[in-house]
Amino acid sequence: MNIRFLGTGAAEGVPAPFCLCEGCKIAREHQGKNVRKRSSILINDEFLIDIGPDFVSSINNQDISGEKIKIICVTHAHFDHFYPENLEIRSKRYVPNPPEQCTLIGNSSVMYKLNMLGYTNSALHLDKINIEFYRSIHLGEYLITPIEANHAKEYGAACNFLIEHYGKVLLYASDTGLYSQRTLDFLSNKNIDILIMECTNVLGETGSSHLNIEMFNEQVNRLNELNAFNRGCKFYATHFSHSELLEYKDLKKLMNDHNIEPAFDGLLIS
Ligand SMILES: [Zn+2]
Ligand SMILES: [Zn+2]
Ligand SMILES: [Zn+2]
């Protein structure tokens, strides 16, 4: 399984255009890994998780194309994760040759937001699957299980996705908050090989629907007690907010001390 980080920032991006905080100043000064688009990953060039407002620029900046994408999972309807106009550009008006048929997986809020644009499924070359938490979906070589996060309750709760592909297991957890006991129990003994989880406010205070580094560790420890991880599981943090954000090399040092790797835009892992 190859995973490419298209974006690793929270809703406002890093630096946030209208902000003059210390984190934004650091990002403007040091550029590179300190600059973050809105969070999204691409698996094996064909499976996208979240299609936010930065989809076009992140694909083009990384010199890849979206033509092979045939599965799109959307975690939730917050605008940084789902910007439906980026599906509108699959229509004939923008692409003369029809793109490959694609399956969109999301909850009813996601489907509602897309339906507001007024396109039929066939105009966008899309099949849609409305998720049911904890119910697995078999698509091609992937087994995809949406699990309930503690985030975006106003949009029917965000999904985190457990994805199995040829014996490897990925948990994509952004946005998440601290899991309910039901979700924790569901993840027990799941042999997760890669955890990608938000750490929105690394050192800052955060509400219950996002994580800081303390809460990230707490969630990992709880899952560890339930044998959720395979030995050697890798832990990646994503969805960073600008607020109080350290320069990348300091962030890496801090997180590596906790056995966490901070993701950055363009990071490619296998
Ligand atoms: Zn978000
Ligand atoms: Zn800022
Ligand atoms: Zn959100």
Automatic annotation (TrEMBL):
The keyword Isomerase does not apply. GO terms for molecular function: hydrolase activity. SUPFAM superfamilies: Metallo-hydrolase/oxidoreductase. It catalyses: 3',5'-cyclic UMP + H2O = UMP + H(+); 3',5'-cyclic CMP + H2O = CMP + H(+). Keywords: Hydrolase. InterPro entries: Metallo-B-lactamas, RibonucZ/Hydroxyglut_hydro. Residues 47-223 form the Metallo-beta-lactamase domain. PANTHER family: HYDROLASE C777.06C-RELATED, HYDROLASE C777.06C-RELATED-RELATED. Counteracts the endogenous Pycsar antiviral defense system. Phosphodiesterase that enables metal-dependent hydrolysis of host cyclic nucleotide Pycsar defense signals such as cCMP and cUMP. This is Metal-dependent hydrolase. The lineage of its organism: Bacteria, Bacillati, Bacillota, Bacilli, Bacillales.
